[in-house]
Specification:
8 helices; transcription regulation; DNA-binding transcription factor activity; six-stranded antiparallel sheet; Arc Repressor Mutant, subunit A; GntR family transcriptional regulator; Bact_HTH_transcr_reg; alpha+beta; Chorismate lyase; DNA binding; three-stranded antiparallel sheet
Length: about 240
């Protein structure tokens, strides 16, 4: 007489097997970004430590890879922000309850940016991020090219309220660029939008991104509350 025996898989193995299934079935395509650790841990109902062990095993078995070439990372309350996925998603992954408010989404002409960006016909997107306690923690002004359907964003809006998702849907996937981070006092207009006193010191990040075809895709100037945002720089060899 034969009896079936229920095989018990530990949680790490369940995570590994499910992610392998998604990869091999094409549900997660080659080159796609994994969701953030916080979201995956919630989905699988595991600790972040267990999730990291599962991801390490997937990396060892060559199912996933770590993107190299990132030497510095912006953090929010100690959590690393993966800017490849967009800050809206990256902030959501921290579990901090930060929401995004769109202030402006309009077509603009910027002759002053033509030499730097290769075009003066742009779409401007201004947003601010608001923490769970109601404080405004960042103000971001983005410029994107008014081409390939992106010129219709002022009428159509963003997909899933995400600029990164919207850009990807129009064929723009970030590949390379540069980012500069400094600090300075807020002017009167920015102080009003951030509900701070003029002269309050904020971090200022300026990031320009190009896609895999070397097309300009995004130029963003961000004002970041230094109480929450930090710049983390890793250097040297690991042991």
């Amino acid at each position: 007489m034969y009896m079936t025996r229920q095989v018990r898989f530990d949680k790490k193995t369940q995570v590994i097997n499910e992610l392998i299934r998604r990869i091999e079935s094409g549900q997660m395509s080659s080159g796609a970004l994994l969701p953030g650790e916080n979201l995956l841990a919630q989905e699988f109902n595991v600790s972040r430590g267990t999730l990291r062990e599962a991801l390490s095993e997937l990396k060892r078995r060559n199912f996933i890879a770590t993107q190299t070439g990132v030497g510095s990372i912006v953090t929010y309350d100690g959590f690393s922000l993966d800017q490849r996925a967009g800050w809206a998603q990256a902030l959501a992954d921290t579990g901090a309850g930060v929401r995004t408010e769109i202030l402006r989404l309009v077509a603009v002409q910027r002759p002053d940016m033509e030499v730097r960006l290769g075009t003066s016909s742009l779409v401007a997107l201004d947003r601010r991020r608001i923490a769970a306690d109601g404080s405004i923690v960042s103000l971001e002004r983005a410029l994107i090219p008014a081409v390939d359907g992106l010129e219709n964003l002022p009428q159509n809006g963003l997909l899933e309220q995400s600029l990164t998702v919207t850009m990807a849907a129009h064929g723009f996937i970030g590949d390379k660029g540069d980012q500069w981070i400094g600090a300075g006092p807020l002017n009167r207009d920015d102080a009003v939008l951030l509900a701070r006193e003029p002269g309050t010191v904020f971090l200022k990040a300026v990031r320009t991104t190009f896609d895999r075809r070397e097309r300009f895709m995004e130029h963003v100037e961000s004002l970041l509350d230094p109480v929450h945002f930090r710049l983390h720089l890793a250097f040297g060899s690991s042991t």
